[in-house]
Design brief:
131 residues; mainly alpha; 2 domains; 7 helices; 56% helix; guanyl-nucleotide exchange factor activity; chaperone; Gua_nucleotide_exch_fac_Ric8
C-alpha cells in the first residue's frame, strides 16, 4: 500500500479515529512509508498485511460466516416469552401475506395451507420441541 493511499484511507475510515486508534494508525502509516516493498522481509510482509487489514475492510462471505462461527449458538440466545413468540408469529404471517400479494414469489403461509388442505396444525409444548 502506498503512503498516499494509506493517508487517504485513514481519513476516510468509517470507524472513526479516536485517541485509542491513532497510535496504531501512525505506526502502520510509518511502516508503509519506510518500506513500501513487502517482499523484503517477513516483518515488512506482516506490516503490509496489517495495512491491508486496517485500511481495507473486506466483508466476510455469507456462506463462510457459519463455518467460522459467525452465527450465535442456540444456547446463547435468550428464551422468548409467550408475547414475543406471538409477535414473531404475527410478523411471519404478515410477511407471508405480503409475499403472496406481490405475486413475485409464490409462497403460502404453512398454517393457512394446513387449514385449507384439511391437515392439522399440532402445537408442541416447549419440552416436545427439543426432541
Amino acid at each position: 500500500m502506498r503512503l498516499s493511499n494509506a493517508f487517504l484511507n485513514l481519513t476516510s475510515r468509517s470507524g472513526g479515529n479516536d485517541a485509542t486508534e491513532l497510535p496504531e494508525s501512525i505506526r502502520i502509516i510509518g511502516g508503509c512509508a519506510f518500506d513500501e516493498n513487502p517482499d523484503r522481509s517477513p516483518a515488512t510482509r506482516h506490516l503490509a498485511l496489517r495495512c491491508l487489514n486496517n485500511f481495507l475492510h473486506l466483508s466476510q462471505p455469507v456462506r463462510q460466516a457459519f463455518v467460522d462461527g459467525g452465527f450465535p449458538k442456540a444456547d446463547s440466545l435468550p428464551e422468548m416469552t409467550d408475547e414475543e413468540k406471538e409477535r414473531e408469529a404475527e410478523r411471519l404471517f404478515v410477511l407471508f401475506e405480503r409475499l403472496r400479494a406481490t405475486g413475485v414469489v409464490n409462497v403460502e403461509n404453512p398454517v393457512a395451507q394446513a387449514m385449507r388442505t384439511g391437515g392439522h396444525v399440532e402445537e408442541l409444548s416447549d419440552d416436545d420441541a427439543d426432541n
